[in-house]
Amino acid sequence: MSDNISKIINELHIYEKQLLNAINNNENESPEDISKNNSLDIKSVMSAAGSLASKDIIEVKKDITETISLTSDGEKYSKIGLPERRVLNVLIDKKEIPMGEMAKVADLDKNENKIAVGWLVRKKWAKIDKGIIKITEIGEDYQDKLGNDEKLLEKLSIEKSINKDNLDQELIDGFKKLNDRKNIIAISKETEHSFNLLDLGKSILNKGFKIQKQATQLTHQQLKEDAWKNLEYRPYDINAEAPKIFPGKGHPLREIIEEIREVFLYLGFEEANGTILDSAFWNFDSLFQPQDHAAREMQDTFYVKNPLKCDLPSKDLVNKTKEVHEDGADTGSLGWEYEWDEDVAAQSVLRTHTTGISTKFLNEFKPPLKMFSVGRVFRRETITYKHLPEFHQVEGIVAADDISYQNLLGTLKEFYKKLGFEVRFRPAYFPYTYLSTECEVYLEEKESWIELGGSGMFRPEVLAPLGIDTPVLAFGLGIERLAMIRYDISDIRMLYKSDINWLREIPITKGIKLD
What we know:
- The protein is an alpha+beta fold.
- Among the domains are: about 70-190, Arc Repressor Mutant, subunit A (Orthogonal Bundle), CATH 1.10.10; about 255-275 and about 350-505, 2-Layer Sandwich (BirA Bifunctional Protein, domain 2), CATH 3.30.930.10.
- About 40% of the residues lie in helices and about 20% in strands.
- The protein has 22 helices and 15 strands.
- Strand 3 (about 125-130) and strand 4 (about 130-135) form a beta hairpin.
C-alpha cells in the first residue's frame, strides 16, 4: 500500500499537490480563495480538482443556487394581471363571452388572446361551449383569490429576486406554472464548488510530499549546458489510458461500393454509368416488361412531371421493341399480345434499377464485352427497417458467342468469392431473363443462407431489337443488403443515419484479396 501511495504521489502534477496542500490547510476554502492564496489561476485549480477527483483522492461537490426574477413581460403582468385574469374579471360580470369578442372586451393582443384561452381551460376558470367562453364555479371562487402563479408574481414584484430553494410548496406550484410560459420569469444559476478529502487523499497527505517544479520537456539550451542533470522529472504512467483517436475513413457503404468496383475491374469488366432520370422505354420496355406490369404502377415507380416526357431512341429500335411486345416478332415468342403505346414508353421515371444501363450499352457496343455499373435507384417503398425508397444496385453483363448458363454461375461464384462469401444458386423468375437464378450467400454466425441478388440469361425478346444474336448473361444485387450483412446491422436506415459514434466504431476496411 505504501509503495502504491508513493507511486501516486510521484505522478501528481505540481498543481495537484498545491491543491491537496491547500485543502489540507483549510478544507472549507472555496476554489476562488485557493486560487488567490496559492498564486494559481482558477482554471488550474479546477483542472487539478477534476484530475484528483478522477483518482478518488478528493470529492468535488457542486452547490447550485437558482435565483428567480421577473422579466420585463413579468413586470408588466404583475401590474395589469395575467391574460386569463383579465378575461376572468370580465366573466365575473358577463358570465359568458363569445370567443370572437374576448380580445376586445379584455383588452388583449393577438398573442395574449391565445394564451388566455389555454390557461382559462387549464385552470378550470372557464369552459368553451360552441364558441362561447363560460365562467365555471371554480372561476367564480377565484374572483377575489389569487392563483399560486399570481401569488409568486406578486411576491417577485415586491422582492425583485427570490432563491428558489426558499419557496414553499404553494409557490413551487406557482413557479412551475410561470415557468411553463415564455418570457415571464428569468432563472439565473450560480454554482459553488467545494472540496472534501477522501481516504486516499488523507493517506497521501500523511505520507507527505515535496512541492517542487518538475520538468516534462527539455529544451535545447538545457541539453547544451547540462542543466538537465539537476532537474526534477515528473514520472508518468506508461500504462495509463491514451485518448481515443478517430482517424478519417470512408463511409461504410462507400467502402463496399469501392470494393465491388475493384472486383469487377480486376475481372476485366468495363464500368458504365447512366442517369437517374430516364425514359420508361429504357427502364421497362427495352427489358421486355409489359406496359401493364404491376411494377410500372404509380405505387411502385416515381414518375416525373418535369420533364414529363423523354426522347426515345432511334425509330428503328422503337419499332422493333413495339413488334416484340405485341407479337414477339421473329423471336419465336408470342409477345404480350397487346397494343404497345409509344407515349407510355416516353414517360419520365426515376430509374427503378440499373439494368437499363445494360440495354443501352448493348445498343451502343457489340459483343464480345463485359460491363458493370453501380448506381442509386428509386422505388416507392415505405421506409422501414428493411426498405428504403432509394438505394444502390450493382449490375453486370457478359456477352460473347461461346458463353452459357454455366459461365453465368462461374462468374457469380468468382465475384462472391472475392467478397468473402460462399454462394449457392436456386431457380427464380425475372421478366427479362431465362434461365434465371437467385444467389444466396451463407452466413456462418447465423447458420443460414441469405438471398442477395438475381441473375439470368437475357431473353431473345430483349436482345433481338438491339440487334444482338449472341448469348448475354446478366446479374444484379442490392448493395445495402450486402452492407447490412458485412456490418451486422438489422436496420437498413442505420446506413444513412448521422450517428457519429456508430461511424467511429466501424472498423477500417482491410480491403479484399484479389489474387
